[in-house]
Each structure stands twice: as structure tokens, then as C-alpha cells.
Amino acid sequence: MNSRIRKRWLHNQVEVGLIGEEADLSYRHEWLGKDSAALESFLNGKTDGGFAKVWANAKKPLIVVGSAVAESQAGSQILATVARYASGDKQKARFLNEEWNGINVLQRAASRAAAYDVGYAAAPSSGTTAKFVYLLNADEVSPSSIPQDWACSGSTTRRFSRRLEDY
User: Fold this and answer.
1) Residue 94 · residue 102 · CB < 8 Å
2) Which residues span the domain enclosing 74?
3) How many CB atoms neighbour CB 47 within 10 A?
4) Where would a tag sit more exposed on the chain, N or C end, judged by fewer CB atoms within 10 A?
5) For residues 136 and 101, is the Cβ–Cβ distance under 8 A?
6) Among 91-105, 121-135, 140-154, which range has the highest average pLDDT?
7) pLDDT tens digits for range 9-31
8) Residues 112, 120: contact at Cβ < 8 Å?
9) For residue 46, is it within any domain?
């Protein structure tokens, strides 16, 4: 994503604003803050700076929200703020029309976006813990969610095989 933004910045002199953790990006950007208060302030026109002026006059503004926002404590508030702003009477024509969709969610995994496209919605969490976990190229699993009696380190094949027979 950053390479595509950089390409647009190099060739089209696109202005970029960032709300979130400060980052050392390979293109010029204006850091606007790191929390939902900074987002509210910016969208309500209470932020000064060059990017705010460009944003106010942009014909095709773009808001990209990372999917990790939904996992944060303020996630629902942030998404609601963006939706309220983009669907407001003053902004709707700039963000959502036949030629342009200026609201995007950047997913970490393409499979997640495809699942949403076909209407998949995850079931609510059952609250039970797993008795067996087999991870094959699973990057998004927190080790703390795996019960301690199944945490494997070193050569645990015998213990693993013995426990498997319990099922």
C-alpha cells in the first residue's frame, strides 16, 4: 500500500495526512495525531495546517482505515465517526458517488476481504477454550490463547502423541 501511495505522491503530487502512530514513511506526509480525538478534530475542521486546507478543497478525498481499528477499544467510535462524516450532507457527494468511493478499509489478509464479499460473518465467540490447536502458517494467533498444557517447545512429540489419544 505504501508503495502505491508513494507512486501517486511522486507522479501526481498527492498530499497525504496520517492519523495513527507516527511512522517514517518514504513520502512526505503530515501527521495529524494518533487517536480518535485527533480524527474528530480533523474531520470537524478544527485542525490547522497545509493538509487540512488541501483536504477541504479535495474533489476526490480518500480515507483508508486499517482493519486493526475494528479490534481496538475505540474501533466502533472511529468507524462511526468516519461513516457519519462521509455520509453527511456536505460530504456525501465528494466521498460516495458513481465515479468514486472515498472510504476504504485496508484488510491484512485478502481472504478476509473475499469472505466479506460473499457475505460471511463470523459467529459470536463461544467462550470455550480449544483442547487441540494445530497451526499451519497461522500468523494471527496469539500464543496466550493456547492453553498452557498444549504449549509445545522443543521435542514434545511423545507428550503430543499421548495427549492426542485422549480424543
Assistant:
1) yes
2) 2-117
3) 20
4) C
5) no
6) 91-105
7) 999 888 999 998 998 899 999 99
8) no
9) yes
